[in-house]
Design goal:
379 residues; alpha/beta; Rossmann fold; Dehydroquinate synthase-like, alpha domain; 2 domains; two-stranded antiparallel ribbon; 14 helices
Length: 379
């Protein structure tokens, strides 16, 4: 038997942030970062909470690729305030920090034999990429630079507020990187071994929106409609992979990003074509379930797909053309990582990717040599 999780409640469109003015008499902690505070979004949320006669403690220590030290610092604030309402305002790193802090808080309570009073958790994403506002995933970097994926239903937000005005301050490069993360989420959920008709519907729509809207944002970063649609697509892709899982594109990106400190979306983007080629077995028979599903996506995008192989080849070409049009490097060499350093890290990257929690739901079971070849071709 399969299931499809519809949590959390989702409120969306411009101005939806005002919903927080109805959070009456709460003791809130706002988890965010310096950028969101600088652009006034934290104060905006505080103002809404003031209208509802709620108090708010602000913690803005979140950083990209959050590590254990950052999460521990956030946890200290949660323990001190013991909030009834937790609001995470920011990109995936901010929301993942709040999730991991909740995870650690519960673990400490279990160890100490004390009661864990989980606050109502509201996620307000400021980037259109991770989909973290609708997932039970959190990615944390350990002291050795290795990324660890936490998965626990308790970490899933109770409410997601998708107000695209929160993305207005996001620069072009971040918009592109996070947008290509949306595309990767959708691709991987679509061909996952746990994919269903429900997750497929969300993934298909997300793919269409990314191909439509990212080029529009290249032309006009202030295109409100394109920003809003990308924000919704990010959530759709997040809901798809929350239910279906991901695959080796993310496993390799976690290893690559953790080792070389690359932005997560950029790391994913550099690997997309090689992963599709491998999953579809283009160097072999090209006759498997993933091949058929990639070919179906090609048809949805109005690409030639008279055969499954032709569809996959044209889908890969469309991804490459999209990346070129958005000024994204087509290879890892374009990130200025020297080949000698990269080659010496390959075995570490492969080992980490094989152990990653995203790998089991990939449509093909990779060998170490398979992953090594994908990484080499991606360079």
């Amino acid at each position: 038997m399969k299931t499809f999780n519809m949590r959390p409640e989702i409120y969306f469109n411009r101005g939806s942030l005002a919903l927080l003015s109805h959070c009456q008499d709460e003791r809130a902690v706002i988890v965010s970062d310096a950028t969101m505070a600088q652009f006034g979004y934290v104060d905006k949320i505080k103002a809404y909470l003031d209208q509802a006669h709620s108090t708010a403690e602000v913690w803005t220590g979140a950083k990209p690729n959050p590590d254990v030290a950052v999460v521990t610092d956030c946890l200290a604030t949660l323990q001190r305030i013991s909030p009834s309402l937790l609001i995470a305002l920011g990109g995936g790193s901010v929301i993942d920090t709040a999730k991991a802090a909740l995870y650690m808080w519960r673990a400490l309570c279990d160890q100490q034999g004390t009661s864990f009073q989980r606050p109502t958790f509201v996620a307000v994403p400021s980037t259109s990429g991770t989909g973290s506002e609708v997932t039970s995933f959190s990615v944390i970097t350990d002291a050795d630079g290795k990324k660890t994926t936490l998965i626990d239903a308790m970490m899933a937000p109770d409410m997601a507020i998708l107000d695209p005005t929160c993305t207005n301050a996001i620069p072009y490069k971040v918009t592109v990187d996070t947008g290509l993360d949306v595309l990767t989420h959708a691709f991987e959920a679509y061909v996952s071994v746990n994919a269903t008709d429900f997750s497929d519907a969300m993934a298909e729509k997300a793919v269409q929106v990314v191909f439509d809207c990212l080029p529009q944002l290249k032309e006009n970063l202030d295109d409100d409609t394109a920003r809003e649609r990308m924000h919704n697509a990010s959530c759709l892709a997040g809901a798809a992979f929350e239910n279906a899982g991901l695959g080796i594109n993310h496993s390799l990106a976690h290893a690559l990003g953790g080792y070389w400190h690359l932005p997560h979306g950029r790391a994913n983007a550099l690997l997309i074509e090689g992963v599709i080629q491998y999953n579809a077995d283009l160097n072999g028979s090209a006759q498997n379930r993933a091949t058929d599903k990639y070919a179906h996506l090609a048809k949805i995008l109005d690409l030639p797909a008279r055969t499954a192989r032709e569809g996959v080849v044209n889908l890969i070409a469309a991804v490459t053309n999209l990346k070129q049009s958005l000024d994204v490097p087509l290879g890892i060499a374009g990130t200025d990582i020297p080949w000698d350093d990269y080659e010496s890290a390959l075995e570490t990257l492969v080992t980490q990717a094989l152990a990653d929690r995203c790998t089991p739901t990939n449509p093909r079971t990779p060998s170490p040599e398979d992953l090594r070849n994908i990484l080499i071709r991606a360079f």
